[in-house]
Amino acid sequence: MDFLDAIRWDIVWNYRDLFIRGLWITLSLTLLGYIGGIILGLLLGMGKLSKKKWIYYPSKYYVDFFRGTPLLVQILLIHLAIIPTIFGHSLGYFVSGVTALVLNSAAYNAEIIRAGIQSIDKGQSEAARSLGMTSKMSMRYIILPQALRRMIPPLGNELIALLKDSSLVTVIAANDILYAGKVVAGAYARFWEPYITVAILYLLLTYVFGKIITYVEKRFSNSYVPPKKKTISVTDRGRVGGIGR
């Protein structure tokens, strides 16, 4: 009890604006990184399924590199070396952070998408071709819609992992949630209050994302039954309109 009494939540409250700003920065980095990672990951996943070597090998080497190196190293490399070399100067922590998260997330999403597509029975594509569909049409209208149902759980896990990994962007002075905690800890030389707050905020975000993923997973599951619309009988309509009293 003495420990709880010694905690000063007023320290966190005094820096509430910094934590709120950090919350929005973290959400922005995560969502932009994830959306970009899904788009690029789809292209890479399809590339790894291609029979053309000039498409397959670049996709494979990309995935191997970004899955085989730490995200922290990728962030520093992009922020301190790649972007300044291309543009002549840094574009700020946000551009570097989003770029690193997109490129890293795409590598993991590519493997999820590749595995999801390969999990569909080959008879589905054969049946589509027998109906006169091209390979692109069968992939778009037959294979991908079925594979998407199987991809949702691992893609959801990737979103939550990316949310937590976004805290690494604080090494390039990103004003995210972890950065806010470091500022408060440095200002007061107290560590329980700011880092407990950081942990609680991340926990709340992962809880909300987890609920959304669970809903989407149930919505697109094969056993999902949409709620029936309530029908009004002729007698009920008459009562509503004041008839039949």
Concise structural overview:
The protein has 245 residues and is mostly helical. It contains eleven helices and no strands. α3 (16-49) crosses α6 (93-118), α4 crosses α6 and α7 packs antiparallel against α8 (135-165).
Would you mind describing this structure in some detail?
By secondary structure, this protein is mostly helical. The protein has one domain (2-240): MetI-like (MetI-like fold, Orthogonal Bundle), CATH 1.10.3720. Helix content is 78%, strand content 0%. The protein is built from eleven helices and no strands. Helix 3 packs antiparallel against helix 9 and helix 4 crosses helix 6 (93-118). It starts with a helix and ends in a 5-residue tail after the last helix. Belongs to the binding-protein-dependent transport system permease family. HisMQ subfamily. Pfam families: BPD_transp_1 (PF00528).
Question: What key phrases describe this protein's structure?
Answer:
245 residues; mainly alpha; MetI-like fold; amino-acid transport; transmembrane transporter activity
CATH class: Mainly Alpha
Total helical segments: 11
Number of strands: 0
Helix and strand sequence: HHHHHHHHHHH
Instruction: Indicate the CATH architecture.
Output: Orthogonal Bundle
User: How many domains make up the 3D coordinates?
Assistant: 1
Structural class: mainly alpha
Query: What is the helical fraction, as a range of percent?
Result: over 70%
How far apart are the first and last residues' alpha carbons, in Å? 67 Å
Low-confidence stretches: none
Q: Rounded to an integer, what's the Rg over CA atoms?
A: 25 Å
By CATH, the superfamily comes out as: MetI-like
Strand content is: under 5%
Largest sheet: none
- Could you please say which CATH topology applies here? MetI-like fold
Q: What is the general shape?
A: flat
Mean pLDDT over all positions: 85
